[in-house]
Design brief:
2 copies of one chain form a homodimer.
Chain A: E1 5-10, H1 39-46, E2 57-61, H2 65-74, E3 81-85, H3 90-105, E4 110-115, E5 119-120, H4 124-138, E6 142-147, E7 158-164, E8 170-176, H5 181-190, E9 193-203, H6 204-214, H7 216-227, E10 230-232, E11 235-237, H8 240-245, H9 251-256, E12 262-267, E13 271-272, H10 277-283, E14 292-294, E15 297-300, E16 306-309, E17 313-317, E18 322-326, E19 330-335, H11 342-350, H12 357-360, E20 364-367, E21 370-377, E22 381-388, E23 396-398, E24 402-410, E25 413-417, E26 420-424, E27 429-432, E28 438-441, E29 448-456, E30 465-468
Parallel strand pairs in A: 1-2, 1-4, 2-3, 3-11, 6-12, 14-16, 15-17, 16-18
Antiparallel strand pairs in A: 4-9, 5-13, 6-9, 7-8, 7-9, 8-12, 10-11, 18-19, 20-21, 21-22, 22-29, 23-30, 24-27, 24-29, 25-26, 25-28
């Protein structure tokens, strides 16, 4: 292959079925669940070979833009674009937007459309399939990757594989909705059906022309969203009004089920959508008792169970088919085999004011300049751990109800207090009296970490008067 | 009644079956498990009516002396004595020591011997029983409180109730070891058997004379341990060599099974030894689905289960007969009905260097001057929350490997740094450079709370050079 493929990474999902680890402010794709790095980072790395791929186009939404930017930066990967979807409009539009951007650069661009929250064993088989699909896409095919089933799985949609089109791809006879167990067993036994992986390969131009013909509203919305897009720092903000006009429809329904250019490439590398905790369990290859432990755990007289822990030591004693998912502030305990029901639990927690927060945020909040974790809260004080990325600065701000103490524990901080500027290095501290104007910056080359002790009568995040801000928040 | 009864509170136990809440550094009796206050505090309160009781004698060991003192002080209860057992020698000796102390004050002293880790519904029935028992004790009886059984319990020993002795007490026909279920059912059906509560009433003099006659080694050890005891602050340190000579034997075996002065008082107030998590569940009166939640929890489609949580929100989804006990650093998940097996788990955790700490200490450590919690640990820093009781001071100390920042968040601190003394009030901070001699004291009338940020290459508790200490630790 000579032509570089453009990875299109879809990273805007809000998945809740891996609660309490996955939360709306930091969903599944940004978590380290299987293997090293987050699923999103693993996705980027799988498409980072520069003999085969150009820089990626990433689709996400405004809430996740800083996580996306930070996680890409951690890998030293510079995306072609990070596009922000103003509202959730499913895959047909997201891919259309990426295609419009890609043909702008290169009218023969080939897109490899990737979910950012799947686990894939990307060995030689995988890349061979990528190359076969890219060739078929260059020949005008819209290619879906179909995974040869290894078990009667009821959690996935299937694709019926039709006649051979040459070059390793086949006609798509039809899409099959998630089957019940009997039907899944039948599909496995009879053969000729593969799992619909949600991964595609296509020429941007082919996709756009089929989209224009078969899903004209989606096509028009994509063109208009791109035409009116605004650059904001490193991000492309797609136009909100344009998005509103588009139907909420997946690429399978909008395009693949209608076009005669669709093809399926049956593959047999290991793949999982990690759609629920039992899928995570399978992806971890359970031990001889059927147990998986991610984090500190003791499984005693227990079988077919999984522990995922953020820190606490979890003991599972004399149980079978149990999932214990322990984050710092929430713990889920249920049947591993029924873990698809977590979505219902999240709904219940969301509907209650006192527990909604548990479905939304983690104890660490990410900000354009870095982030902070709440470490301890008392009656009239609060302790936070702040981290500031090299070269970044927080807004110039003041508070009406609190004073702050900062102790630098790593790196160097530049602190502006009213009209003074001082440098603080490791082990130095500063006091910011109530009402003073202050700003924190990291002028160094390494991460700045500090402990902030706030004292005062009111310590809410809304007691921040922003006087000046690099990130458009003042 | 005119004579005041002396409460003798046995608070030296190390119970592990309520792990992870109960740990050797802060076992069950000092935890709030059922109702308000710790079980030890509830025990003190039940015996605090000064029309009926004098100040208590408390038996514990050196490790728990500060918790005992603090928890008594919280209630405004000043013990007659806090006696420290140099080694664990069971109840016969502990009671003998208390009896020696009591007869020194009043040769007719009546002792009410109380376990400090039981739950009791102390209504009018309870106090009526106390008065009846005290009268029988004054008449020379050694009285065991026997609880009328309400279910075929296999976790308790039983007492066979013999002929009526008048004054509401009966002869003890014999002690029955913990029965199996069939035998427990038989005892319940046939009647005439009560649970051995481990609570006793006796004249100190009667006990000592029976002890001298029936358990002379125990008697001699008690006399000698008291004769050589040392006063240490508010504590009585019993003599270690004397303790070593005594057999490890319970009062049931040593005295009650042999003496002809034993009597049982059958009572029917609600009582539990809270010996395992299922007993805690029973004591909490489960809801209509059989569930109990202590701490934030959601029980969804679940039955006959219990959650105890120190803070994290626990979701139990679609399960039955499950115990989830969630402390900050360890979580137990097992069958509630088999929760007696927690002791085995604790043994397994103890045998592994990496997990032993989880069975020993909590995140909060208690010291004579107050205590501290570890809040956050980083690579070269650590954040602790310290609390110092009014009027107390820490040792004069220095560190070779760390500097410290202190931020006062409540109360007033007096800080000595080398030869300077400064006062810090709320919201003020101080820096203690590596190698400086320093001391923290609370000169105020309210608790002093501060946040300590340590930075340095080594942050272990053993990098403390104590130059001077109020508590005999320099």
């Amino acid at each position: 292959m000579t032509k570089l493929v453009v990875p299109v990474v879809l990273a805007g999902g809000h998945g809740t079925r891996l609660w309490p680890m996955s939360r709306s402010a930091r969903p599944k794709q940004f978590l380290e669940l299987v293997g090293e790095g987050s699923l999103f980072q693993q996705t980027l790395l799988r498409a980072s070979d520069n003999e085969r791929y150009s820089a990626p186009i990433i689709l996400t939404n405004a809430d996740y833009r800083f996580i996306v930017a930070e996680q890409a930066q951690e890998l030293g990967i510079a995306p072609q674009a990070i596009m922000l979807e103003p509202s959730a409009r499913n895959t047909a539009l997201a891919i259309a937007v990426a295609a419009v951007a890609a043909v702008d650069n290169d009218e023969d661009a080939i897109l490899h459309v990737l979910a950012s929250d799947h686990a894939i064993d990307a060995g030689a088989d995988y890349y061979k399939a990528v190359d076969v699909a890219a060739q078929a896409a260059a020949n005008g095919r819209l290619v879906a990757f179909g995974i040869e089933p290894t078990r009667p799985e009821t959690g996935y949609g299937y694709i019926a594989v039709g006649e051979d089109l040459g070059h390793g791809v086949n006609v798509i006879d039809r899409f099959v909705e998630k089957p019940d167990l009997a039907r899944a067993q039948e599909l496995l036994t009879n053969g000729g059906h593969v799992w619909n992986s949600g991964m595609f390969m296509m020429a941007a131009r082919t996709y756009l022309s089929e989209c224009e013909r078969l899903a004209p509203e989606t096509y028009a919305a994509a063109r208009s969203a791109m035409a009116q897009a605004r650059r904001d720092l490193d991000f492309v903000r797609l136009d909100g009004a344009a998005f509103e006009t588009a139907p909420n429809i997946s690429v399978d329904y909008a395009i693949f089920e209608k076009t005669n250019r669709a093809a399926v490439l049956p593959v047999s590398f290991a793949w999982s959508d990690l759609g629920s905790w039992d899928a995570v369990w399978k992806a971890h290859k359970p031990d001889q008792d059927g147990n998986v432990a991610v984090g500190p755990a003791l499984m005693s007289n227990s079988r077919d169970s999984m522990v995922v822990s953020d820190g606490a030591h979890v003991v599972v004693d004399g149980l079978q088919d149990i999932a214990v998912i322990a984050s710092t502030d929430a713990i889920y305990v249920g049947r591993l085999s029924s873990a698809q029901g977590v979505g219902q639990i999240v709904k219940a927690l969301k509907s209650d004011d006192t527990t909604r927060g548990l479905t939304e945020i983690h104890k660490t909040a990410y900000r354009p300049w870095g982030g902070y974790s709440s470490v301890l809260s008392g009656e009239r004080f609060q302790v936070k751990r702040l981290f500031v990325k090299p070269g970044k600065k927080l807004s110039l701000q003041k508070h009406h109800h609190r004073s702050e103490h900062w102790v630098v524990v790593k790196g160097t901080g530049e602190v502006t207090i009213d009209d003074k500027v001082i440098l603080l290095s490791e082990n130095e501290s500063v006091y910011l009296p109530l009402g003073c104007t202050h700003r924190l910056a990291n002028p160094g080359k390494i991460l700045l970490e500090l402990i902030e002790v706030q004292t005062g009568s009111y310590l809410g995040e809304d007691d921040i008067i922003r006087i000046e801000d690099e990130f458009g928040r003042s």
